[in-house]
Amino acid sequence: MNNTTIRTVVAMAGFTALMMTQVMTQAMASEHGAAVAAGKAPSTNVAWTADMVRFVANGDKDRGAKLSQDMFCASCHGNAGIAPSANWPSMAGQRAEYTFKMLKDYKDGKRMATNTSDPMVALSKMMSEHDMADLAQFYASFDLPALPKGVSFDAAQGEKVKPIIARGDGKRLVAPCQSCHSSDGSGAATDSPALAGQTPDYFVKTMQEYKNGTRHNDVYARMRLIAQALTDEEIVQMAQYYAGMTAK
Amino acid sequence: MSMIHIDPMEKRWLWAIGGMLAVFWGVQIYFAAAENMHPPSNVEATNSAKLHLEGEFAESNLGVKKQADGSYLVTMVAARYGFYPQEIEVPAHTPVKFRIASFDVLHGVHVPFSNMNTMVVPGYVSEVTTQFQSPGSFPMICNEYCGLGHDYMYSKIHVTAGKS
Amino acid sequence: MSITAEHAAGLAASNRPTATAVQAIGNKLGLWNMWVAFAALALGLPMGLFQAAERSGFFPGIENTAVYFASTSTHGVLLAFVLTTFFTMGWGYHAMAHSVNKKPFFGWTSFWVSLIGTVMAAIPLLTGYASVLYTFYPPEMAHPAFYLGATLLVVGSWFWVADMIIGFVQWKKENPGKPVPVIMFMFTMTALLWGWTSLGVASEAVFQLLPVAFGLSPTIDVGLARTLFSWTLHAIVYFWLMPAYIAMYMIVPKEAGGKLFSDEFARIAFVLLFIFSVPIGFHHLYVDPMQAAGWKLLHMFGTFMVSVPTFLTGFTVLASMEIAGRLRGGKGLFGWISALDWSNPFVLAGGLSLLMLTVGGWGGVLNASYTWDTTVHNTQWITGHFHLIFGGTTVIMYLAAAYWLWPKITGNQLFSRKMAVSQLWMYFVGMVILTLPWHMLGVYGQPRRVSTTDQYAAFPEFAQMWGLYEALMVVGAVLVVISGLMFVYNLLMTHFNKVQEADTRVIYASAIHEPMRLPGVLNSLAFWNWAMLAYMILSYGYPIVQFFFLEGHHTIPWGV
Questions:
Q1: Is residue A104 very low, low, confident or very high in pLDDT (cuts 50, 70, 90)?
Q2: How far apart are CA B156 and CA B84, in angstroms?
Q3: Fewest CB atoms less than 10 Å from the CB: which of A137, C150, C162, C261?
Q4: Which of C65, C297, C454 is opposite residue A24, by nearest beta carbon?
Q5: In whole angstroms, what is the distance from residue C319 CA to residue C313 CA?
Q6: Do the beta carbons of residue C361 and residue C401 sit within 8 Å?
Q7: pLDDT at C469 over 60
Q8: Residues C105, C163 contacting (CB under 8 angstroms)
């Protein structure tokens, strides 16, 4: 076996392989794309492209602080993002992408008014997307919220639901809550919201709205499917669990 | 062959290796060329972040659709941590084409005991055509690490008996 | 015939020659690199046991998803990147010093750069900030220090690659027309292979991962990243396997009492390993959407070809052992097998490694099939396969090589030959019990990289199918960990052993027919570099360039 033989063999193998590749690649051309039925509008208009992520990241929290004063956000959401009562959600430490998306969904009519969020629809229509990004960064700049004064949680109830929080329920196709919302309840990229320290009443209200479909701005119905699989008791227990996460 | 020493037993072994290779290659070429059996490879780019806004992978377009030629088209999305729609039904012994896209990160999807097995790469559309041989209910399992919820990511496929 | 005390002393002294300056450098580089390698082994093995136990479901108290995936990632990096790179660098330096008597140009640079990289990556790995597995597939992103550390580990090894090539070329210049000592040829082909294949992951790191990790790029093309990684992902296992083959060719025949059956075929095996292991990475992408089937078919042909050097190696090593067996009086078709000295750890390791290579190797031939892969891709079959062929076949020869090298480098006798033999048996049995059930789990559809199996509660028949195999795997893992720790203990005790080793001469197996002259392709690097360039352009040219013309929308980074 000398140099020439080896080189010839390698070259011939290479040439044969090249020919085969051409044949196979052409044979593999498949028709791309498929017929699409004209369907309903999407659950949200927000799409996390790089531009959108950068846009929200560039929100100005100081301008957001001023906006929150001008628009009286504190009357429902508190000066530092801790709600004054259990009726409204705390916003402190909430992921900016999530806050932005909620505001945009309100403005686009993807998130509907309910008895307590009625003002949000009107308020969101007064905001530009810049405003939304600024407000989102303002609230994100706080630590996760403690519970409002006078609001308590039941630690024992919270413990009962820990198996689902940590390990989900495979039988019901429910993934662990913490796999999206983090083990410290601070949420995760890109728009999984922080849940730690949220008021229990608001938590339950939100999950019930997902359960009965009143709230439907979750893409591919992911939260609706989860909420529908959970019992009412489990939802209340989860509310206690997350409410207690920021307790000292 | 002049410069190196090759033992006669070694020469016989070389022939045996050549024979084995011929068998390996021959079988593969046969099934690829004559039976058109290939792994999923359709090279089609898409925008994963915008899947839900409109088009093929919009929320209202997901699911199982019977095609004019009797085959089935299944449109699905892989998104942390599930495959959507979460339950689908297809008949056995019928060509089924799956088109799946990822809404976020790398996923994989596999129905055990079948060759429905594909990576779902964000930015690309995956396409697998297969036939299920036996009726029953099976998991469609995510088999590529996609985060801390990967373990729990699966959906259900119900294969009904016979052609419909 | 009696010998005088002087004569005996003289013989003893000549069996313990003083190391030359070059050999002393090779010894020290060898020892330090290989100690890092085996420290990684000692740390990584128990993590594997934790994973097997955590996943089995029999120990609810330890179940924790975040810890599991941090462990999987760390275990993978320690055993697949750190153990292997440092072991090969260490022995490579040692072999260069003792076979061609060359001092490395860079030497300690490779050690320190790689070590700094390792530590830099270890910190996020151990603290849960890099749970992206040893394959670190984007767009899930770890802490930037992980990518930087991994890149440095690879870059450090490039200094070693350069050292081996420089030593090879220098020796050839000084010895025109002569065959390069075969161990140096094999190690240099290994280094050259690593240089060529690591370019894939290095490109992915430098052009894609690091820019995203440091916020310089807002998106990443996951299809391109996986393609670049596949460039490295197959040949890296040959980077791991080649030193194991070197041990089979250079240590086992002599220790068994025989000769190497063929020097030329050792070289032929290595050049075939070199050329056919890099341009075949698409068998890792068989079910990926972003590469056309034609390219996958092309890579498949090369994947079957790379079984050839393993078939050749199996033949040569078995034939070499048969020579030894027959020289020891073995008669009949199989009599030579029992005639071998199985209480010799090197013979034992060689035999056990070949057994595991047979099963793992055929598993690999199966996996090369373009269509078979659709039934097992990303199931536990794949994980079982590479634990058998890497953890089993390859690492057991690393252990054997260490048992051989430590006494020669330290001058101390191996602490316990008996412990080495029982350790090797326990490792083999453990590996078999660990990996064969693992293959079955894959056939039964269990996916890879899951920290639990109780999520499939909607399909209880699956958990029932899997339960027995999970239990067996825990037993196997326990045996592997105990034997691995026994190995490290034996090495440590050897290092500080007060008993001297009688024979510290570094003498490799010699061939029945030592070649006087060799064709250029079996004695030099130039042709193979050009061949690799051509084959890589064919196999990876269009598949990579296509990404720059596809109207793709790249992906934002995500967390774990």
A1: very high
A2: 10
A3: C162
A4: C297
A5: 10
A6: no
A7: yes
A8: yes
